[in-house]
From TrEMBL:
An MF annotation (GO) of this entry: 2-oxoglutarate-dependent dioxygenase activity
SUPFAM superfamilies on file: ARM repeat, Clavaminate synthase-like
The entry's keywords: Dioxygenase, Oxidoreductase
PANTHER family: DEOXYHYPUSINE HYDROXYLASE, PBS LYASE HEAT-LIKE PROTEIN
Physiological role: Catalyzes the hydroxylation of the N(6)-(4-aminobutyl)-L-lysine intermediate produced by deoxyhypusine synthase/DHPS on a critical lysine of the eukaryotic translation initiation factor 5A/eIF-5A. This is the second step of the post-translational modification of that lysine into an unusual amino acid residue named hypusine. Hypusination is unique to mature eIF-5A factor and is essential for its function.
One matching Pfam family: HEAT_2
Protein name from the UniProt record: Phytanoyl-CoA dioxygenase
InterPro entries (UniProt xref): ARM-like, ARM-type_fold, HEAT_type_2, PBS_lyase_HEAT, Phytyl_CoA_dOase-like
Membrane-spanning ranges: none
């Protein structure tokens, strides 16, 4: 096993963007995994599930996350300086029944889910896990859907993480997944760890050889076409500006072809509508003179989510008319339409920023929630003192949900470290560390980590937060001190860590000797 990290290739990154997962493998020797399984079995038998203490209880696990394949995959997807989140869990599966399809929450908190890869998860299998032992199953291409879009036959299109010891599945955090049935009658462990991007990308962090997006030659049956969304993710992760997202087919679009797509958009078959909305989204502004903006505005209300997502990304490419359509949809009385409009507004460039700032004053809570998210995704908003100021003001709102959204958005703006984000963002997040709601407090700590050294003024409050009653407030405060990284912050973190050092060999059966 070499020490140099093994970055993902272009093909692997394209699969991750479209399918939402990659199946990879470490190359530890068998005795490593045998020892790891022995420790897991003993801990689960004598102590139960260690939960968030999984890593300090079994410190050998850190070798997994230092492995060149694991570090390379995480660096490729989340950039350098990614964070291992304090929530981690060991899953023990001995059930002969499959689990239910689900998306994970964010430690009990339901936040707006990102299409761009700000978050990822690793599910690691320390033992040989054939299909009969019940590996995790994922449904490719579903990471960007709130709804179940796959067939009633729950296994159709499913991919499992079956493989030898050391196999792991790297997933987009929001993909639909489940545990499969363990029919072998033996213990099966899966170790789940979460990771977060702390800096917005400025250049590719994978082994990038081809600068332009290209759709993989083959896609899974459950993967619907989303060219505009995939292009946005690729170029955003490459650190390139919005102008790079123009599809190559735009200039060659013919009126008859556009008319056919608009007709197909009214089909009774959801797959046909998804295909039509995808092509219109790729064509973008070239389709606008033929009424495409109005048609896609209506498609935002489509009951089949892939269609509505394509409509949002297509409108984002249609200039002022598209942005105005999305801003009106942001005020829609149906929350899912407002949410989808926010995804479009988050990738539409600087044009809608004024409208998004104005939407923060809406009386409709869903509108404010979604507008805050869209602003947080906007690099141009990070350079806007007004956007930062208005989001900071939202941290005084009576709604805990909106205060959380504002704290989250300010963190995302702080991650655009080359932008001139106002110091008001740090001041507001520092104050939010003492909010009455624990979710606001732990979101504020997580967001301050993204501001890096510019958040040094928050250090005294972060030190106080290390004694908070909530486990994630304490954990995020410690992470923020680490990522702020100044001497003052590091000294405060060391003062906290030294007396709280964990001894993995101290148990109720062996309290101090040998």
């Amino acid at each position: 096993m070499g020490n140099e990290i093994r970055l993902l290739t272009d093909d692997q990154m394209r699969q991750f963007i479209t399918d939402g997962y990659l199946l990879l493998k470490t190359d530890f020797p068998q005795p490593f995994h045998e020892a790891l399984i022995g420790q897991l079995s003993e801990v689960y038998r004598s102590e139960g599930n260690p939960g968030n203490n999984l890593l300090p209880r079994i410190p050998q696990l850190q070798k997994v996350f230092d492995h060149p394949v694991v570090k390379g995959a995480l660096t490729s997807v989340l950039g350098e300086g990614y964070m291992m989140h304090s929530h981690r869990h060991g899953h023990f599966n001995n059930s002969p029944k499959p689990g239910g399809w689900h998306k994970d929450s964010y430690w009990g908190y339901k936040r707006m889910r990102n299409h761009r890869p700000w978050w990822a998860m690793i599910m690691y299998f320390p033992q040989d896990t054939p299909i009969e032992l019940g590996p995790t199953g994922v449904m490719p291409g579903t990471q960007n859907y709130e709804t179940r879009t796959f067939a009633s036959d729950e296994s159709a299109g499913e991919v499992t993480a079956a493989g030898e010891a050391g196999t792991f599945v790297l997933i987009h955090y929001d993909i639909w997944h489940r545990s499969t049935a363990n029919l072998a009658g033996r213990e099966r462990f899966m170790l789940k760890f979460e990771f977060m991007r702390t800096q917005a990308p400025t250049e590719p962090s994978w082994d990038n050889r081809e600068p332009d997006w290209a759709t993989p030659a083959s896609l899974g049956a459950s993967v619907y076409p989303h060219e505009a969304m995939w292009e946005d993710a690729w170029y955003w992760m490459s650190g390139k500006e919005a102008g790079c997202r123009i599809g190559k087919e735009a200039d060659s679009a013919q009126p008859a072809g556009i008319a056919s797509m608009l007709e197909q958009l009214r089909s009774d078959e959801p797959e046909h509508r998804a295909a039509a909305s995808d092509r219109l989204a790729v064509i973008g502004s070239s389709a606008a003179p033929f009424g495409a903006a109005a048609a896609l505005g209506h498609a935002l209300e489509d009951t089949f989510e892939p269609v509505a997502i394509n409509a949002a990304y297509g409108l984002a490419r249609m200039g002022e008319e598209g942005s105005e359509t999305l801003l009106r949809a942001l005020q829609h009385g149906e929350p899912k339409v407002s949410r989808l409009a926010a995804y479009g507004l988050s990738v539409a460039g600087a044009a809608p920023i004024g409208g998004l700032i104005a939407a923060l004053g809406s009386e409709r809570e869903d509108t404010v929630f979604h507008a805050a998210f869209a602003l947080g995704e906007q690099k141009d908003a990070a350079a806007s003192a007004e956007a930062v100021r208005e989001l900071a003001g939202l941290l005084n709102h009576p709604s805990e949900r909106l205060r959380c959204a504002a704290a989250d958005a300010l963190g995302s703006l702080g991650a655009y470290r080359g932008a001139g984000a106002s110091a008001e963002g740090v001041e507001a997040l520092t104050k939010a560390l003492q909010d009455s709601d624990a979710q606001v407090r732990f979101t504020a700590g997580l967001s301050l980590a993204k501001w890096g050294a510019r958040a040094e003024g928050a250090v005294p409050r972060l030190v106080e937060a290390l004694e908070d009653e909530n486990r994630y407030v304490r954990a995020h405060a410690a992470e923020a001190l680490y990522y702020i990284g100044t001497t003052k912050a590091k000294d405060a973190l060391l003062d906290f860590l030294r007396p709280s050092r964990w001894c993995p060999t101290t148990t109720s059966a062996s309290t101090f000797y040998p």
